[in-house]
Amino acid sequence: MAGEPDTRQEGTFSTCSFAIVRSDVLNDAMIKELCDQIDLHGGTCHLDNYPDDRLDLDNVTHIISATTDFPDYYSALDRFIHVVKPTWVTVSIATGKLAHPRKYSPDPNLFMNDVVATCVELPQGDADAIAGGILAMGGNYSFKLTSQITHVVALNMENDVCESIQEKNLNIKMVLPHWFDDCLRLGKKIDEGPYLLPDPEILNPPLNQAPSCSPSRKHLSGATSASPSSTKAPSLNGRKGLRVFKKKRILLEKDLQISDVLRGVLNGMILASDGTVVDKASEADILVCKYRDGQNYNYATAKQKDVGNLAWLYYLIIHDLWTSPLRRLLHYPLPKKPLEGFAGLKIGLSNYSGEARTYLENLISATGAICTKTLKQDNDFLITAHRKSEKVNAAEEWGITVVNHLWVEESFAKWQKQSITKSRYTHFPTKTNLGEVVGQTEIDRKVIEAKFLNLDAIPSETLPGRRRIQASTKVNSSVPPSESSERGNVTQTPVRLHSQANGKENGTPATEGSRKSKTAAAVKLQEMTPDIALFEKERKRVGGVVYGGRRKDDPERVEPGRKRSAEPAEPAITTKKTPKRQRTGPTPVEIRLLISGYKPWVGNAKKEVNDTKKLRELGISIVDVPAKATHFAVPGIVRTPKFMVAVAYAPMILTTDFIEACLSADELVDPSDYELVDKQKEKEYKVKLKDALQKARENDHKLLEGYSLYCTEKVSGGYETFKTIAEANGASLAPYRGRQMTISSRRVGEDDAETANEVVLLSSDTAEDKTLWPKFQRVAADSRREPFVLLGEWLLTTALRQEIQPFESYELTKLKAK
Hints:
Layout: E1 17-20, H1 28-40, E2 44-47, E3 62-64, H2 73-78, E4 82-84, H3 87-95, E5 116-119, H4 124-136, E6 140-141, E7 151-153, H5 160-168, E8 173-175, H6 177-186, E9 249-252, H7 260-272, E10 276-277, E11 286-288, H8 295-302, E12 306-308, H9 310-319, E13 346-350, H10 354-367, E14 370-372, E15 381-384, H11 390-398, E16 401-403, H12 406-414, H13 445-451, H14 466-476, H15 481-486, H16 512-539, E17 591-595, H17 605-617, E18 620-623, E19 631-633, H18 641-649, E20 652-654, H19 657-665, H20 679-685, H21 689-699, E21 708-711, H22 719-728, E22 732-735, E23 758-763, H23 767-770, H24 773-782, E24 786-791, H25 793-801
Parallel strand pairs: 1-2, 1-3, 3-4, 5-6, 5-7, 7-8, 9-10, 9-11, 11-12, 13-14, 13-15, 15-16, 17-18, 17-19, 19-20, 21-22, 21-23, 23-24
Helix pairs in contact: 4-6, 4-16, 18-22
């Protein structure tokens, strides 16, 4: 009314124009509230009227959406328009400035986007790694406890923050840092349950009980197969009509191989929803086809039209809700040829059930591999959701490669066989069933354009300037998608293929909108730079976010045995006292310290946390894996698994007095003054530690490379212990339970004819193990190998002395295979 003061606040959103996308999560009531807030703070907004109209992207700076599943999402990315969740508006108003849009992106690849975390009493290096990982994966990090915090990361409850959260019953999850480590290794957000303080399940002794699974149906519903088994169109269940096809022009390709009756029914549904059925790709908004091949497919892909398969079309009909055909792997047309390296592979499944199993069976078949119903010795791979199953035991015994489902999903998405040396494919969190994250991998747009778009298959008159476009595509796709994410560019901007718009080949009009896009691109890159830099710095830490370390080629890494420089700095020639320079960042790590048997920490977790933090400030990072250690502190020579494995990696071995000395002096003392000398144990074990470490450096953990070792479950120390020690020294070791099996006829990489046929079973001398010896000898004889049944002591002594011990002293039987 006239005379009423204008309550609009200029500033926060005065330069912004918003489009708001409706969804199940973002309903009309919430949209009205958002519009009121935006209007109050100087912005303008309008609603996405899909399916009635497409968004007018020329006049939009931000799109507010709870999901990326709306038709204009990729077009918005191409124009560098920010897509943010509704919380971005709230945070921007609260802070009085535009919040970082990337931290509020609904992109599912940024799987930490609903996490706001803080760390409590963690070593600085681990806290930095967690912060970097969260920010890179779309989350937020705070250095103090605020009302926005969703997760507190701590090692125990013995701190004021966790105690306060528990007392006040705040809705904040307190988790071990191991949760972030496992999430970042897998590239997926897993359930926090097993990691929650005060009693995290993963710290309990391992049980034989398999982890349970409650997979999310939203990733698999209607997407378990690329070819619906039903020959009938999906039922509308009494609904009045569809809206999802309104104002859409749809081409049903001939390669769908559906009957005329079914085609007629589908055409009727499209027409009834105010859509149009067309015969030419040039007239279509949507192409539905079976294969990634043909003139229509290539034309639609080049023009960035929506291309999906029949399963995707059925999904749209059933849900009457838009979803991108790239969102689910089996909603996109299939390649005609098998994936290179997969044709003929025999792949088994274990611990997946229901829709997840059906989906993986069809995905394996889509690669050209064979999904076997039962596991046999001739299988190449076993895909499992966790390691606690009889199939996994059998696969290990038979030497079959065991991986999780991410390996086949990402191989299919990138259409390139992924290396199983990537830890994400062989990582199985102890208490997590990976079935809960099945189906979350998406088709990579850059891969589609780089590997399947064939512009030569399109008549030149239908796509002017095609050669220029093809060249542009190849240039932009020269970097594999996996590498771009590893470089910190997690939100990938798809290659934009410009059609002829102004009579010039591949031309883009120099409009105000294009200039704005370029400016927005520069601003967005500048905004992302701090997060990318922090993540890149912390990504290089060996061992993830729980146990820090440096790569061997890191110039700041201290090699084992290297002494800290004791040379004083040259004094400055000045008459004035130079003020002490303030530390601007964490102390560089000079020592990666593995610790075993340090008594002051036994039963005193609080002291361990405090001491660990103090040591980190002195330049000492505590690690838990021997392969990452430059130094190893231990009371004396012991034949524990940790000690035996550590010897293979040849760190400088110190007494635990080194820890006390550093803490007492509040500085990093010279580690060479604390090298371990244990004459009594050296005499007992008949080993010289110094000589063993020198041999280990020469062996480069390849002492037993090529050896075929097997182990009974009753061997003293246990199979897992022996497997760890064997692998640290370059050998493969499989369990032997007396099953029917085959042994390769020759040791891999062995050229010595006299020893090439040796095969070793490590055993105890119990009556139960003795029954296995004849079976093992027969199996070896069938493979023309010479069997040796040895005490497990042979491996322990070999590993400790770092030289292969003669078999004779450890043979449990002198019987030869007949």
